[in-house]
């Protein structure tokens, strides 16, 4: 059976929701943990962009990369409008995401410990179907 891949375009923000980072990943859980615990880029660490406020899921890598590039070109106001279209209060979606993927606090801690020892570690979570609010995740091409 052929392995099914998922690719994500996501937006993280700081606590005040004044600065945003648009990213792309094939493992949304690991990437969110990296941002939350300071393993992201220097930009995300500097501005404390550790709150997941938006994400989209894609089946095809080229579609996800194109979408990331598209959103990165937008003005801040347009990005906020996109986020608020599915997350009006711009709340942090990570706890719900972890819960819906069945990721425990213990697993998160183990992943963080592993990342501290070896960035780009074996910390890997198999993506499963997201069972959360349909308005929060936008499945593209699936």
Summarize the topology:
Blueprint (H helix, E strand, L loop, with lengths): L6 E7 L6 E6 L2 H9 L5 H5 L4 E8 L2 H13 L2 H11 L7 H7 L4 H13 L19 E4 L2
Parallel strand pairs: 3-4
Antiparallel strand pairs: 1-2, 1-3
Descriptive overview:
- It is a single chain.
- It is globular, with a radius of gyration of 14 Å.
- It has a four-stranded mixed β-sheet, with helices on both faces.
- It is α+β, with helices and mostly antiparallel strands and 142 residues long.
- The protein has helices at residues 28-36, 42-46, 61-73, 76-86, 94-100, 105-117, and strands spanning 7-13, 20-25, 51-58, 137-140.
- The longest helix is centred in the middle third of the chain and has 13 residues, at 61-73.
- It has six helices and four strands, in the order E-E-H-H-E-H-H-H-H-E.
- The protein has a single domain, classed as GIY-YIG endonuclease (3-Layer(aba) Sandwich), CATH 3.40.1440.
How much helicity do the residues have? 40-55%
Rounded radius of gyration (Å): 14 Å
List the uncertain runs.
127-139
- List the domain count as a whole number: 1
Top-tier CATH class: Alpha Beta
- Main β-sheet: number of strands, strand sense, barrel status? 4 strands, mixed
- With strands numbered from the N-terminus, the spatial order across the biggest sheet is 2-1-3-4
Discrete helix count = 6
Q: On the 0-100 scale, what is the average pLDDT?
A: 85
- Could you tell me how far the N terminus lies from the C terminus, measured between alpha carbons in angstroms? 18 Å
CATH level-3 fold name: GIY-YIG endonuclease
Shape: globular
